[in-house]
Specification:
This protein has one domain: F0F1 ATP synthase delta/epsilon subunit, N-terminal (ATP Synthase, domain 1), CATH 2.60.15.10. Helix content is 0%, strand content 76%. With 78 residues, it is mainly β. A hairpin with a 2-residue loop joins strand 2 and strand 3. It is built from no helices and 6 strands. A 5-stranded mixed barrel has the order 1-2-4-5-6. It is globular.
């Protein structure tokens, strides 16, 4: 799936990913390939990305919004 993480200042990640783990306001959750459409609020915490080559990348965010649609994930992070 295509993952794009942007902040008010810049784009911090744009690549293919096989898994994204997010700190949702009601608890942590994961997004995998072909996930159902979703919009959710995020809280402060650690965001984990597993890229298609199996490498892991971590980001600290201070909240935000995630949108999942047609195998594309857009994260607007603070």
């Amino acid at each position: 799936m295509n993952l794009n993480i942007i902040t008010p200042d810049k784009s911090i990640f744009k690549d293919e990913a096989s898994l994204v783990q997010l700190p949702g306001v009601d608890g942590s959750f994961e997004i995998l390939e072909n996930h159902a459409p979703l919009i959710s609020a995020l809280k402060k915490g650690k965001l984990k990305v597993i890229k298609t080559d199996k490498t892991e990348v971590f980001f600290e965010i201070n909240g935000g919004i995630v949108e999942v649609l047609n195998n594309k994930v857009l994260i607007l992070a603070k």
